[in-house]
């Protein structure tokens, strides 16, 4: 979820290592930066770059907080990566390198991953970040060294992943650590978790109606979302709606939108957009490119040929289990 995209665009998607943006005085990349002007066909500019990308569901102990995990290997050329907003945070862990946390994004980030790099990664669900010393509103659109957040724990993880016999075992070590951290930290904010489910695109609702459904004021819901998700409910709703469109497109879903509309327009309606123009505006805002550029002209499969079912199947499952029915009035965002 590339030109693959998992939420993400594997021509450019979700992995760090050398971000093409400036830094603040503190050394932290601030954002969302304006993406540099790059050829939207990175394979022609940098070479094919990626040898392998495999994603899978997390271990059972992380199923409620992690959307997917992955292993990525680049080839003999640098690889252009377009990170897209997913509503959650990600950990990118180069084997033998320094792990980083990608905060919740509100716009695209582009980086170039060096040649011959292996990365293990974890993508968290919205509102389900690992234990961190700061609220996610302070980490939005930032790309930080994990050592800045976890201190010596990150150093021990670096050693464990580097010493693992295979990247698969390194990813297992990272997941085992996360299971322990979540058990130690206790539960997540249940109201934010429900808000995330209600804001899924399959039953479009107004943010004020969501707050009322949760017995919160609009300002209380906003504060809780900023702290636990890193963005306002409205921005989260836009992000989830776009993820819904990508999930439908990457899964090869049959559109059930307006009669007479083509595949793109029908999927836009199914994902909660007013029309295709609405989708195009939001796609440019969130990714920096048009829907057809992002999908490589193919609606029914990922242009890179990777299997993203592990990432999108749980997302699509929420389409069948909407939490809000009837009493909440629908409204376009």
TrEMBL record:
Residue stretches making up the HTH araC/xylS-type domain: 203-297
InterPro entries: AraC_XylS_family_regulators, DUF6597, HTH_AraC
Keyword annotations: DNA-binding, Transcription, Transcription regulation
Top-rank lineage group of the source organism: Bacteria
PROSITE patterns: HTH_ARAC_FAMILY_2 (PS01124)
Gene3D superfamilies named in the record: Homeodomain-like
Protein name: Helix-turn-helix domain-containing protein
Organism listed in the record: Amycolatopsis albidoflavus
Organism placement in taxonomy: Bacteria, Bacillati, Actinomycetota, Actinomycetes, Pseudonocardiales
């Amino acid at each position: 979820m590339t030109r693959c995209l998992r939420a993400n665009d594997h021509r450019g998607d979700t992995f760090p290592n050398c971000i093409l943006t400036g830094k603040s005085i503190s050394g932290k990349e601030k954002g969302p930066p304006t993406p540099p002007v790059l050829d939207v066909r990175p394979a022609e500019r940098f070479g094919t770059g990626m040898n392998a990308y495999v994603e899978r569901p997390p271990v059972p102990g992380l199923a409620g907080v992690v959307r997917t995990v992955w292993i990525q290997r680049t080839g003999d050329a640098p690889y252009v990566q377009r990170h897209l907003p997913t509503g959650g945070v990600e950990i990118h862990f180069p084997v033998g390198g320094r792990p980083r946390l990608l905060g919740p994004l509100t716009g695209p980030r582009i980086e170039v991953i060096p040649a011959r790099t292996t990365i293990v990664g974890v993508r968290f669900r919205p509102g389900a970040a690992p234990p961190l010393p700061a609220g996610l509103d302070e980490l939005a659109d930032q790309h930080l060294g994990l050592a800045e957040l976890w201190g010596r724990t990150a150093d021990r993880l670096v050693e464990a992943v580097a010493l693992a016999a295979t990247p698969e075992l390194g990813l297992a070590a990272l997941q085992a650590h996360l299971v322990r951290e979540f058990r130690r930290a206790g539960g997540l904010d249940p109201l934010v978790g429900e808000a995330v489910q209600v804001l899924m695109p399959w039953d479009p609702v107004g943010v004020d109606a969501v707050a009322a459904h949760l017995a919160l004021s609009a300002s209380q819901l906003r504060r809780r979302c900023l702290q636990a998700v890193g963005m306002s409910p409205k921005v989260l709703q836009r992000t989830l709606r776009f993820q819904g469109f990508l999930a439908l497109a990457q899964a090869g879903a049959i559109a059930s939108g307006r009669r007479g509309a083509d595949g793109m327009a029908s999927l836009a309606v199914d994902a909660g957009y007013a029309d295709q123009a609405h989708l195009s505006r939001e796609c440019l805002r969130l990714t920096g490119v048009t829907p057809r550029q992002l999908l490589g002209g193919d609606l029914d499969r990922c242009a890179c040929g990777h299997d993203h079912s592990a990432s999108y199947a749980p997302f699509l499952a929420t389409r069948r289990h909407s939490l809000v029915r009837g009493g909440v009035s629908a409204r376009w965002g």
